[in-house]
Write a structure and sequence with these properties.
Mean pLDDT: 78
Number of domains: 1
Low-confidence stretches: none
Radius of gyration: 18 Å
Number of helices: 10
Structural class: mainly alpha
Order of helices and strands: HHHHHHHHHH
Helix content: over 70%
Largest sheet: none
Distance between the termini: 64 Å
Length: about 200
């Protein structure tokens, strides 16, 4: 039954073209990786083009994260604890993401995008902390672009076999995670250097 629902949703996305991809990522009833891989399949069939798929995929992912940011910012923790389960956010996920954000700062909005579960949940503590929206949008967009490119490219390469995305993505996901980790280490080093300079200046 679940497979039939997903199949119907994907056909609905196909019928709407670029806007279907955007809406699919905004609502995220289906995991973003599947929506993006299916977008890649549509590219391989000539229904849409690669650049358009990446643009609308990135926009959809960004809007979804802004929505979560607003929930955190204007709803606060009581609303999240009570209704978080309806947007697939457990208290455990929110607690872990909030701890990351408070410990490592706003840069986690970028780096957490490459970590399963955390990539969605990190937007909530950003909202709770009232992070500047323009900075949140910038970091979220910068992280969403390579994610969209990767899965759309793989979906395009797989063509009719796009449903095998999990197996195909595995060799590519690790280098992406390692690159994100390298950037994360660089971020911490820069932050540490500037923190020491401030202490010496004081």
């Amino acid at each position: 039954m679940l497979s039939d629902i997903i199949s119907n949703l994907l056909h609905w996305i196909e019928g709407l073209g670029y806007f279907g991809i955007m809406l699919g990522l905004m609502v995220e009833v289906i995991p973003s990786e599947i929506v993006l891989a299916y977008a890649g399949y549509l590219v391989s069939q000539g229904h849409i083009n690669f650049v358009g798929a990446v643009i609308f995929g990135t926009i959809g992912a960004l809007i979804a994260q802004i929505f979560l940011y607003w929930i955190g910012r204007y709803g606060g923790r009581p609303v999240l604890d009570r209704y978080g389960k309806y947007i697939f956010m457990t208290k455990k996920h929110i607690d872990a993401s909030e701890a990351w954000f408070l410990k490592y700062g706003s840069g986690m909005v970028f780096f957490a995008r490459f970590v399963p579960v955390a990539r969605q949940a990190i937007s909530i503590p950003a909202g709770l902390a009232k992070m500047k929206l323009s900075k949140f949008i910038l970091l979220t967009t910068l992280a969403s672009i390579p994610w969209s490119i990767l899965f759309i490219y793989l979906g395009k390469a797989l063509g009719e076999n796009w449903e095998d995305i999990d197996k195909k993505a595995e060799p590519y996901a690790m280098p992406l995670l390692l690159a994100a980790l390298a950037l994360l280490i660089a971020y911490f080093l820069i932050k540490w250097i500037f923190s020491n300079k401030k202490k010496k200046g004081a």
